[in-house]
Specification:
Length: about 60
């Protein structure tokens, strides 16, 4: 049988773990957004460089 104190300790540890995981997930989400923004910038830069090449050739 689980005592009230043991159950309370379990809940406290679970909540701590949940909070830590939430922070990790949020951090990963922010990292993914930064990577996505960088990729969009690279894509735009690449598209613009293609336009410059066309102007030089044409």
């Amino acid at each position: 049988m689980v005592t009230k104190e043991e159950f309370g300790q379990f809940i406290a540890e679970f909540e701590s773990f949940r909070d830590m995981m939430w922070e990790e997930i949020t951090s990963m989400k922010n990292d993914i957004e930064k990577i996505n923004n960088t990729l969009e910038d690279i894509e735009e830069e690449f598209a613009n460089s293609g336009k410059k090449i066309k102007k030089k050739i044409g």
